[in-house]
Amino acid sequence: xxxxxxxxxxxxxxxxxxxxxxxxxxxxxxxxxxxxxxxxxxxxxxxxxxxxxxxxxxxxxxxxxxxxxxxxxxxxxxxxxxxxxxxxxxxxxxxxxxxxxxxxxxxxxxxxxxxx
Length: 116
Known about the structure:
- The protein is an alpha+beta fold.
- It is built from two helices and five strands; from the N terminus they run βαββββα.
- It has a five-stranded mixed β-sheet.
- The model has no long low-confidence stretch (mean pLDDT 90).
């Protein structure tokens, strides 16, 4: 099994999801609400629990389906804000996903124009 997150698009679902769901239910949510067909093998979809301490990642390749669960022992995943219109999802790079899954903040409130 080769887990290479750089192959395909990474989509973070920022709306809380019932993570009692398994692979097939999460794939159905991705397909119905985000129009992402995970079975094609081009996407990694990341779901976050309501309490923002558990994440599940689903993916599929030519060999089978993959469900990865990540539970933070300290802290919570950052709650991200999006526009009111459109899907409750955000594309991430591999580096952003790795940072996010380690509990780091992706976005901060800027108080000045200069980069710190």
